[in-house]
């Protein structure tokens, strides 16, 4: 990949629809992975086979060699029926978390007014990665005074006073920055281009204002390419923050800085 082919730039107003679409899509991406992982879980497969065999026994759908090749296909409808039911149930259990998370992200102040929100601190920024003029991915780091707020525009009672009016959002930098969004289009992930985007954002955050001491991000093993990239950049587990889905996949809070200060200084000097 040559320098002329790829570039990282700041968000522009013309990117608004594409960025919001990508943020929502990135949030829902885990649903397909969760459903697939849940279906191929040993317990799910065992349940599927057991229920199918019970149905076959009850309806006497065991293979009948006397009918030739077609006789061996007789049990298949039972497996198909229960497979469809289990797929539906997996999606029914998993979907609410991802839909709620997607709506939550799209209702947050940083998405409602991207340009103004990420201008509040010199260490903040929403960066767009392009390759050959095409959108490849994005990363958003929030280093404002509200960098750790999880409130949405729907939570009027919980929303910090500094965020209640987008016209009066105060300037300033927090000691803790948060990676709010990180997404790369699937065809480009194998090339590892996400590492360049993450490194650029981290370097910008630490260099722009010495106030920033740590960068935090929430991640899950369902989005493996992002989690691996973040760990490879030097982030370490701070604490598990919850579980979700039918098999209780973990949400982890990772941090760069503090105990990872050596890595932080490397980014400052590079």
TrEMBL record:
It comes from the Eukaryota. Residues 151-170 are annotated as: Disordered. Keywords: Membrane, Transferase, Transmembrane, Transmembrane helix. The chain crosses the membrane at residues 38-59, 71-90. Residues 85-252 form the N-acetyltransferase domain. Coiled coil: none annotated. One of its GO terms (molecular function) is N-acetyltransferase activity. InterPro entries: Acyl_CoA_acyltransferase, GNAT_dom, NAT_camello-type. It holds the Pfam family Acetyltransf_1. This is N-acetyltransferase domain-containing protein.
